[in-house]
Amino acid sequence: MKDTLFSAPIEKLGDFTFDESVAEVFPDMIQRSVPGYSNIITAIGMLAARFVTPHSNVYDLGCSRGAGILSMRRHIQVEGVQIIGVDNSAPMVERCRHHLSAFHSTTPVEILCDDIRCIEIKNASMVVLNFTLQFLPPDDRLALLQKIYQGLEPNGVLVLSEKFTFTDEHINTLLIDLHHTFKRANGYSELEVSQKRTALENVMRTDSIATHKQRLEQAGFSQVELWFQCFNFGSMVAIKSNNSPL
Ligand SMILES: C[S@@+](CC[C@H](N)C(=O)[O-])C[C@H]1O[C@@H](n2cnc3c(N)ncnc32)[C@H](O)[C@@H]1O
Ligand SMILES: O=C(O)C(=O)C[C@]1(C(=O)O)C=C[C@@H](O)C=C1
């Protein structure tokens, strides 16, 4: 379904939430809003083919309607893998479960309606945070990454995709502007772009690439790299090294 949520003037613009109306249009919204989204989803599948090991767990934290899970599941060839998707939006979880059940697979998937800060992560070969960390309060981000690091097995991978801010004001303005041009090219009006931006202001706090790298390293990851960037959006991989002390 087409996203027209911000197309008419909204008198009292509240904070953006992943409610019923957002969940309904979400695939169209994210596809038209995030440059490179499809490439990232495809690459998550390619990474799953390389990193997922037999008899391990795979987590998609903030899985929304399950695009990342489907991509991983299609590429997992090893046996005994359990995929766990987590999202605290009930309307997203409902659609995710329904969508996944339409495809046959031998790899089981469990979708939990829960807060990613509360779940246990263990025996993981791959963890995905695809545009989710930016919605956590900044003070909670390090603890989540530490929990992920501890739950990963050696050689396990974390994929972290985010919208970024840039410390150079000129570059920051340029990349935000290019993102808005991208959204306009995808059919969003000036009003839609600006109302969504205001709605996101209090709920989505973005970090710089340098902040993400530092935080990942602080959490324990020694191998961290940005593998994709388009304008102010991108995706990083962080690998738990083989000779990790933890
Ligand atoms: C931008 S969407 C993620 C998109 C999705 N990963 C994909 O690739 O299609 C962010 C998701 O994170 C979920 N979310 C945000 N904070 C959360 C939290 N603390 N616990 C669980 N889910 C959360 C939201 O409900 C939303 O579905
Ligand atoms: O639409 C925007 O401007 C965004 O920042 C995109 C973004 C995201 O980065 O997660 C914000 C909220 C929606 O979940 C989909 C995409």
UniProtKB/TrEMBL annotation:
<dbReference type="GO" id="GO:1904047">
    <property type="term" value="F:S-adenosyl-L-methionine binding"/>
</dbReference>
<keyword id="KW-0808">Transferase</keyword>
<comment type="similarity">
    <text>Belongs to the class I-like SAM-binding methyltransferase superfamily. Cx-SAM synthase family.</text>
</comment>
<feature type="binding site">
    <location>
        <position position="197"/>
    </location>
    <ligand>
        <name>S-adenosyl-L-methionine</name>
    </ligand>
</feature>
<protein>
    <recommendedName>
        <fullName>Carboxy-S-adenosyl-L-methionine synthase</fullName>
        <ecNumber>2.1.3.-</ecNumber>
    </recommendedName>
</protein>
<dbReference type="GO" id="GO:0008168">
    <property type="term" value="F:methyltransferase activity"/>
</dbReference>
<feature type="binding site">
    <location>
        <begin position="87"/>
        <end position="88"/>
    </location>
    <ligand>
        <name>S-adenosyl-L-methionine</name>
    </ligand>
</feature>
<comment type="subunit">
    <text>Homodimer.</text>
</comment>
<feature type="binding site">
    <location>
        <begin position="62"/>
        <end position="64"/>
    </location>
    <ligand>
        <name>S-adenosyl-L-methionine</name>
    </ligand>
</feature>
<dbReference type="GO" id="GO:0032259">
    <property type="term" value="P:methylation"/>
</dbReference>
<dbReference type="Pfam" id="PF13649">
    <property type="entry name" value="Methyltransf_25"/>
</dbReference>
<comment type="function">
    <text>Catalyzes the conversion of S-adenosyl-L-methionine (SAM) to carboxy-S-adenosyl-L-methionine (Cx-SAM).</text>
</comment>
<dbReference type="InterPro" id="IPR005271">
    <property type="entry name" value="CmoA"/>
</dbReference>
<dbReference type="InterPro" id="IPR029063">
    <property type="entry name" value="SAM-dependent_MTases_sf"/>
</dbReference>
<feature type="binding site">
    <location>
        <position position="130"/>
    </location>
    <ligand>
        <name>S-adenosyl-L-methionine</name>
    </ligand>
</feature>
<dbReference type="GO" id="GO:0002098">
    <property type="term" value="P:tRNA wobble uridine modification"/>
</dbReference>
<feature type="binding site">
    <location>
        <begin position="115"/>
        <end position="116"/>
    </location>
    <ligand>
        <name>S-adenosyl-L-methionine</name>
    </ligand>
</feature>
<dbReference type="InterPro" id="IPR041698">
    <property type="entry name" value="Methyltransf_25"/>
</dbReference>
<keyword id="KW-0949">S-adenosyl-L-methionine</keyword>
<feature type="domain" description="Methyltransferase">
    <location>
        <begin position="58"/>
        <end position="156"/>
    </location>
</feature>
<feature type="binding site">
    <location>
        <position position="37"/>
    </location>
    <ligand>
        <name>S-adenosyl-L-methionine</name>
    </ligand>
</feature>
<dbReference type="GO" id="GO:0016743">
    <property type="term" value="F:carboxyl- or carbamoyltransferase activity"/>
</dbReference>
<keyword id="KW-0489">Methyltransferase</keyword>
